Amino acid sequence: MGRLSYGMLLSLDGFIAEEGGDITLPVPEAELHRHFNDVMRRTALSIYGRRMWEVMQYWGEPDPDRDAVGEEFAALWQETPKVVVSTTLTEVPPGVTLIRDDAVEAVRRIKAETEGDIDVSGAQLAAAVGAAGLIDEYLLYVQPVVLGTGRPYFAAGFRPDLALVGSEQLPQGVVLLRYAPA
Questions:
Q1: Quick one: which of 158, 174, 173, 45 has its CA closest to 107?
Q2: Does the model's pTM come out above 0.90?
Q3: Which of 2, 46, 123, 143 could in theory staple to 114 by disulfide, Cβ–Cβ 3.0 to 4.6 A?
Q4: What does the alpha-carbon distance between residue 77 and residue 75 come to, in Å, rounded to a whole number?
């Protein structure tokens, strides 16, 4: 059985993006990006909601301005199996699995069938699978910036009971807070 985590960069006031969905949080520099490369290296499977899928597709495209650390992440991301949960998409690239209905049951099955670390990205999707008790760990990568408003890390109405299991100081003033369901 896999271990499911929900991790995202967020502002000090708890937002992962602006109201319109634009991600205006500071871009990870090389030292912080290496941390995310290590996370991706350990990831057996990534599950994305539609909006996060659209953001992450950048890593599947060539970019002549990417540095070596970014290129390493892109290669790791491209090699990692991916699932997209969406009721609006009708197709995804070859090798990517599209789930159009009953996301909770699909993630439950995926978790049971997958060995290793599984990450889920997207606040709405995380709320649905978290409410079903499927998330083993919440990873909050808190950046030293305040957005004031926007899309919260925890989707509206989702209020999990959590216990702190660890914290870590990362580059760029980022603090990783790790929580498990209490």
A1: 45
A2: yes
A3: 2
A4: 5
